[in-house]
Amino acid sequence: MTLYLEVLEIAAGAVLVCAVVTLWRRDVRAIVTILAVQGVCLGIVAGDLAIHQRDLALGATALLVLAAKGLVVPLLLRRVLRKDPRSRETTPLVNIPASLVAAAALIVLSYVVSSKIIALDPSPATRLVPLGVATVLVGYFLLVTRQRTVSQIVGLLVVDNGIALVTFLVTSGVPLIVELGASLDVLLVVVVLQVLATSLGSRFGSFELDELTELHD
Amino acid sequence: MLTLLVLVFPLAAGLVALVVPWRPWVGWVAAGADAVVLALGIALAVTTSRGHVQHSLGGAVRADALSAFMVLVIGAITTLAAIQSVRYLRIEREAGRCTDRHASLYAVLVQVFVTCMLGAVLAANLGVLWVAVEATTIATTFLVGHRRTDGALEASWKYVVLCSVGIALAFLGTVLVYFAAIHPGGGPSVAHGVGTLNWTSLMAIAKHLDPNVMRLAMALLVLGYGTKVGLAPMHSWLPDAHSQAPAPVSALMSGVLLTVAFYALLRFKAIADAALGPAFPRTLLVVVGLASLLAAASLLIAQRDYKRMLAYSSIEHMGLLALGAAAGSTLAIAAVLLHILGHGLTKAVLFLTSGEIHQAEHTSEIATVGSLLARRPALGGIFGVGILAIVGFPPFSLFISEFTMFRAEADAGLWWVVVVALGCLCVIFAAMAGHSRRLLLGDPDDGTVAVATPRSVVAPLVTALVACAVIGVVAWPLQSLLHAAARVVAP
């Protein structure tokens, strides 16, 4: 029982820590590695819950998460980086100390938002929900303050990992069929984004998304 | 059985396009499959409007009157777009802008896209509904970027990033609904499993769902699906994607994709209404609805691009739908559904016509085209009549559906909303009338001869506009269906 809780707390906490570290690092290659670590932590959360509840479907989900978020997605992102080496350094719109202060504020906000969820079912797992909500918010912050294609994909994936963490903590995972569909969708989105990022990169050279100003009113 | 066939036909046409190298007949096979969907939609509508619910695949696929109505709308508009796609691809190939491989890719992706939309409206499980809606984003990304210009690539990047992060919020909302469903307060306890997210089981326990969690869930769902619907302030992807996509794709996206996402909102609103009472969902929908109308009105005034003008008009109509849904009575929802059909048909016709204009004139600037009615009378005429329909002139069905929605809003005590909305509609009317006048009227240069448009292009477009007018005058063929469909989400 205690081991279950300790693992759950450490892994869920690590997911949020990884999200904050993506804000802190400038090197996109390092950020992709952190994303892989985050995926593994998420898989551990699901696996820990599966063992605790003796839930075979959730165990399958855990393996799926480990494979997709810990391995396949980071590999896809590495391919983009290899094709366009100039996209490796990111220059955030908000400087890094300010980003970290914003992250702290977002974490406080997530505790406020989550209080209603915890009130409905104050189990030990549900109590960790603010970690997931904070990961989602940090992901959104990353998405709006980063201007490289790969950093935006990372932001999107951090949001998605945060949502997955909330899902595992509050409901021990949605039904397997929904989880399968959702994971497949995320994988396909990454593939689509990878193709688009590569063709944007080859067309515009090294560029910031700011420079996409063809379409406006 | 019927419901399964609805999914099988478009998918089979997609498979044909995948294995056979591109030929025009492949496009006609797709159009045929979509026409079959329309016919099956009518058959479904007839059975479900009498109160029967159709199931297949062990209950995973489910069609009540609301689903049947959406199948009907999807069938009608995809058929129109598929017919026009054949011609669009022929002209692009002749102009050397499109290889056979790209034409095949287009045909496959359109059929996958259509299947995903049909899957969304036929899914018994609201989680699967989310998966299908997200899958439409993936299928349409490369369609938006199909012209492979700088603008098209930019639009598809924005589209997939914004819609994916938006729809992710809807997933979080769905998860919270599931969470509330497995911890019902005081109600019957529910098993943890696939069935819990089914529409029927959620509606059965909706009264017992925890109001605090449901409030959070509904806000996330409105933001999430609202992004895909194109409701302000999450609308910024829409004008770019609609103006850059090939015209038949814009017709599909504007005509049906937006309203398929709206369909998801209608279902969740019914659950939230039961759990929270109507006030909270209504406030959310009024806010995003009015924001959409204001955004559309302010950005339409100085619009110079006719495809973007049509895109902003879609945002306006989605806002009107949100306001209609906010009123929430059976009458209001019936009007919302009629508006979905009328807007879909008219906007599809307008986008398809705009595609013809673009391929003939090579520009989407209103000022550069000019005097279209004199130079291309058929195209100009259809565009003009379409604009009259879309701004709500009788006899087209949009007039009666807008009128009914406003009446229902007034009945629900939303007087001030009606006043603000009508103000926006006046501005939008003036703006669209002015832009269309510059596009259509004016004297052509000396010596230009009127160019005829092939009858094969004109016939389907005119048929759609006539259908829209007929429905506006005599709603009887749809009356029982609309009523039954509205009762599903507004009992």
What is the makeup of the main sheet of chain A?
Answer: none
The tally of domains of chain A stands at: 1
Mean pLDDT of chain B: 93
Biggest interface, chains and residue tallies: A-B, 45 and 54 residues
Give the strand line-up of the largest sheet of chain B. Answer: 1-2
Description:
- The complex is a heterodimer of chains A (217) and B (491).
- Chain A is mainly α and 217 residues long.
- Chain A has one domain (2-84, 91-215).
- Chain A is 79% helix and 0% strand.
- Chain A is built from 7 helices and no strands.
- In chain A, helix 4 packs antiparallel against helix 5 (129-145).
- Chain A is globular.
- Helices cover 78% and strands 1% of the residues of chain B.
- In chain B, a hairpin with a 4-residue loop joins strand 1 and strand 2 (61-63).
- Chain B is built from 20 helices and 2 strands.
- The mean pLDDT of chain B is 93.
- By secondary structure, chain B is mainly α.
- Chain B has helices spanning 2-19, 24-48, 65-94, 100-122, 126-144, 150-182, 199-205, 211-229, 237-244, 247-276, 279-301, 306-327, 330-361, 366-369, 372-375, 377-390, 397-411, 415-440, 455-473, 476-489; strands spanning 54-56, 61-63.
- In chain B, strands 1-2 form a two-stranded antiparallel ribbon.
- The interface between A and B is large, with 45 and 54 residues.
Provide a short characterization of the protein structure.
The complex is a heterodimer of chains A (217) and B (491). Chain A is mostly helical.
